[in-house]
Amino acid sequence: MLKGKHIILGITGSIAAYKAAMLCRLLKTAGCQVRVVMTPMAKQFITPLTMATLSRNPILVDFFDPENGAWNSHVALGEWADCYLIAPATANTLAKMATGTADNLLLTTYLSARCPVAVAPAMDLDMYAHVTTQLNLSTLRERGVRVIEPGEGELASGLSGKGRMAEPEEIVAEIADLLSEKKKSLAGKHFIVTAGATIEPIDPVRYITNHSTGKMGYAIAGELAGRGARVSLVSGRTSLPVPKGVERIDALSAADMYVAVTARWPEADGAVMCAAVADYTPEHVAASKIRKSDDDISISLVRTRDIAASVGADKGSRILVGFALETDDEQAHAEAKLVKKNFDFIVLNSLRDKGAGFRGDTNKVALIDDKSRTDYPLMSKREVAEIIVDRIEELIDNRK
Ligand code: CTP
């Protein structure tokens, strides 16, 4: 959705400017071309060198290049862009945008931009709550600017409240949504998505888990919601922000996840089983911390229930998509899971492929059904989410 898009990233003078580095990296990973415009004050918070390196373009701050007098044309920049994102946006810049003040390149570019504009405010809680800031934000909203709401939490001032800039992943998802020309093709459909790692407690301080971050499942939930579906995201342990329009249900253990999914299955039109669910859980959870002794110990593990296989056994006309993360004999394992769990198709990723699997922002997958296998190159997890949801849409269309 974001591939090939031209994004101007405007950075203003806020502590949250450090997050602009990650934001820029995520936009680049999604295939965007990024030009960075900074206010003079922003340079105090993050260096132009960092942003130039990440965006692979020179940074624009002044109307003229002080070295050679070349004019930095805000008009040309405004025409080049598919989207102008100002993140972080300070109270000062928001006020200037609302009144049409044009005393730096970032602001003249705003006035020249014909593309969609988004701002991610970042400031102290009282500044954010101030009636002037709120009036400025509603003025900007009325003029079509997308305001990416700040989150609540600890602020640079040491106070806690609303004013923390939205997380970079959240901002990228909002930009994708803003630029999305897709119809709400899944309106009226309800999908369950499982994501993240489960946690199986051993005692009050220890647990068994795995390396899943939930990124792939969260990207799929966001993509489904972006196309109008109602999404119940049954989430294990992750630190990711909830995608826009998605209902998150926390289910940390395999048993909790089983309950959360099976309770919703009768009303659902389908599910994407992306979570890395523990296959075994400790037979007994110690009520108090297990103390060490000189002896070795062993923990007896018992099987968890297979959520995918359970809903697959009662699939009816619903759509069920599974994942297989393999280390060896990939095709055979994926095919066996496809059949055993009654998936419509399975997304295979191999830890042997560089850039695939856990943690990263990329994945390399093959979609396998009972008739064929389609291999895709290394892509961002957002793009992988798109091809998976495209395949789901195809299945829905074929069943009409
Ligand atoms: N899955 C599930 N419930 C479980 C285990 C797995 O819903 N208790 C789902 C996963 O979300 C995934 C698919 O089943 O979509 C395959 O998971 P995987 O762990 O690869 O398969 P297992 O059946 O556990 O096989 P193995 O661990 O032996 O590879």
Spell out the key features of this protein.
13 helices; Rossmann fold; 400 residues; 2 domains; alpha/beta; 21 strands; 5-stranded parallel sheet; 8-stranded mixed sheet; binds cytidine-5'-triphosphate
Give your account of this protein's structure.
It is a single chain. By secondary structure, the protein is an alpha/beta fold. The chain has 13 helices and 21 strands. α3 (about 75-80) crosses α5 (about 105-110), α4 packs across α7 and α9 crosses α13. It binds cytidine-5'-triphosphate (CTP).
Name the assembly state: single chain
CATH top level class name of the largest domain: Alpha Beta
What is the CATH H-level superfamily of the largest domain?
Answer: CoaB-like
The set of bound ligands, ions and cofactors reads: cytidine-5'-triphosphate
**Individual helix count:** 13
* Residue runs with pLDDT of under 50 for 5 or more positions: none
Radius of gyration (CA) equals 24 Å
Helix content: 25-40%
Protein structure class: alpha/beta
Number of E-state strands: 21
